[in-house]
Design a protein that fits this description.
alpha+beta, 53% helix, Beta-Lactamase, 4 domains, 425 residues
């Protein structure tokens, strides 16, 4: 009889636990959302006369929280395991190294598959630096040492020599782990970027062939176009002849722009060369004044009257400003003035009195073969040449509405101008 009583009590307790836990499942949201604590439950239950339940509920609540924490820990462990498995089955080498000695303390197993060296070799002193490609070694090690000393995370690309003599391009993404503000560990991943580098090389080769082809075609067309223009000049001044001359002039301009574009793609600017923006404005105005007068426009120069010196290449900057002024003449209304402004910022601007350019088109017009108004002819290369030239000089160009109508193109140079750079293909 006693045994049956014990069994009955046990069953009732078990059922009671399930019932209370089910109630807790439904009320747990209120517990967390409203900040109800165990003491609150004890007060409510005691006030209704269920003192025994008041002892059980906090215990079950604690049990519930422990179970939830346990499930979260198991999920986190499973996630970390999947992440580790993912890293170790891709062309990514996870690693950890001492921030002082640069000796590896951990290297992922795929390092052996990627570079061919046994994992044990990676833990030798100076293994990493000794196997960097000789052409990259000094700059790569120096860069890593400096970033580590400053406590910065860093990201760089370099080549390593594999065990079989292959060259393998890697991108190394490094996190600097500090203790008390002092770098202690370096953790990172080396990513195999061989395929990307191969595609970049193929793209450069293709672009080089395109530039050579365009330059050859442009060169071959220049002479016959010049001869054709000279023959047209000897003919009677008829409407047909004027139309033919305009067509030949348009083709000649396209050829010149193609040649300029191919030269820009391989242009290297002397870091010591300087340019006077005021002189560029004067030369462009002198060159284009006859064209402006013929088209019933005029050109003026405003702003600083003295020199405004910036680093750069005079010929390419003059060509860029000339393209902007030619566009301004083409798109301005007749009997208006095209303004070339020079400021101490340093900056040079060109203002036309045309219909303006909608904001949504202001980036598009710098793309090759894009034209703001296709009815006015042109190949759509002039502004592409301007953008390439400006970028080569470390400058920027912006487009805005002009006061009273029209458009302002402004080339702005940094006040402390960085060294001009070669334009990458």
């Amino acid at each position: 009889m006693l045994g049956l009583t014990v069994i009955g009590v046990f069953l009732l307790a078990t059922l009671w636990e399930f019932a209370v836990e089910d109630a807790l499942n439904r009320l747990l949201f209120d517990v967390h959302a409203k900040g109800i604590v165990a003491e609150r439950w004890e007060f409510v239950l005691t006030s209704t006369g269920f003192a025994a339940i008041a002892l059980i509920v906090p215990a079950l609540l604690s049990l519930r929280l422990v179970k939830a924490e346990s499930r979260a820990k198991r999920a986190l462990a499973a996630s970390e395991s999947k992440y580790q498995a993912l890293l170790e089955t891709t062309n990514v080498i996870p690693w950890e190294a001492d921030a002082v000695s640069f000796q590896f303390t951990y290297v992922g197993p795929q390092a052996e598959a990627l570079l061919g060296y046994p994992l044990a070799d990676w833990y030798q002193n100076d293994f990493w630096s000794r196997h960097i490609h000789p052409d990259d070694r000094e700059a790569t090690v120096r860069s890593c040492l400096e970033a580590t000393r400053l406590g910065h995370d860093h990201d760089f690309e370099y080549r390593m020599i594999a065990a079989d003599g292959r060259t393998v391009w890697l991108r190394d993404i490094v996190t600097n782990v500090k203790q008390a503000g002092v770098p202690r560990l370096l953790r990172g991943v080396m990513i195999d970027i061989n395929e990307r580098k191969r595609m970049e090389a193929a793209l450069r080769l293709s672009e080089g062939k395109y530039r050579d082809f365009a330059a050859d075609v442009a060169h071959e067309l220049r002479t016959p176009l010049a001869l054709l223009r000279s023959h047209l000049d000897t003919l009677a001044d008829t409407e047909t002849n004027r139309s033919l001359r305009r067509d030949v002039d348009g083709m000649s301009r396209l050829v010149s722009q193609l040649m300029a574009l191919t030269r820009l793609d391989s242009l290297a600017i002397d870091a010591l060369a300087t340019v006077d923006l005021r002189q560029i404005a004067v030369r462009v105005a002198e060159q284009l004044a006859p064209i402006a007068i013929r088209e019933r426009r005029s050109i003026e120069i405003t702003g600083i009257r003295g020199p405004v010196i910036v680093p750069g290449n005079a010929d390419t900057l003059e060509m860029a400003v000339r393209n902007l002024v030619e566009n301004a003449i083409r798109y301005s209304a007749r009997n208006t003035t095209v303004t070339i402004g020079v400021s101490e910022e340093p900056a040079i601007s060109v203002i036309d009195r045309g219909r303006g350019i909608p904001p949504e088109n202001r980036e598009l017009i710098f793309q090759r073969f894009e034209r703001a108004d296709r009815r006015r002819g042109g190949a759509g290369l002039g502004l592409a040449i301007v953008r390439r030239t400006v970028e080569a000089h470390g400058a920027g160009i912006d487009v805005a509405d002009a006061a009273g109508g029209g458009t302002v193109f402004t080339i702005r140079f940094p006040t402390a101008a960085p060294a001009p750079k070669a334009i990458a293909s």
